[in-house]
Amino acid sequence: MTKQDRINAIYKSNMKLAVPQGLITFPMTFFTVELIRSDSWNGWYVFGVAVCLLLLGGSFFKANQIETNMTEREGAKQIITRRNGFLFGVFVMSILSVALTLKLGWTYAWILIVTGGILYGGYRLIRKQDERLSAIDPEHPLFREMRLDHVRD
């Protein structure tokens, strides 16, 4: 499978998963906002956030399976899994950093600093994984190549 075929297949699978991910994000946003607004750590809101994170994790796992099935090299599969795990971790940490800084009553500057630091650190880790992946499997697309402007169909 060529690099372009892989880009097309990964992009199409990501678009199919975007609808369920978006539908899961709405209740998660509600639970997170209500958790922040409540005076205590209400168990139902924490449970709602946890269930939404599990569902989102399942969709990230599905996308990871699709992507790892496109290469035969075990080292590349490990790097792809690690990269997608980092991506999910950055997503979770950015949501939790905003929620916790608001819950703890920190100023908005801290939200920007903490979330910005988490996003930058995640970006650097994903870029590093992409460099290692291209050395092992040059035919596998980099994370930044899986966008609409690289799709040719």
Major sheet characteristics: none
The chain-level mean pLDDT equals 85
Number of strands: 0
Write down the overall geometry: elongated
> Could you tell me the strand content as a percent range?
under 5%
Verbal overview:
- By secondary structure, the protein is an all-alpha fold.
- Helices cover 78% and strands 0% of the residues.
- It has 4 helices and no strands.
- The protein has helices at 3-37, 43-68, 74-103, 108-136.
- Helix 3 packs antiparallel against helix 4 (108-136).
- The longest helix is centred in the N-terminal third of the chain and has 35 residues, at 3-37.
- The model has no long low-confidence stretch (mean pLDDT 85).
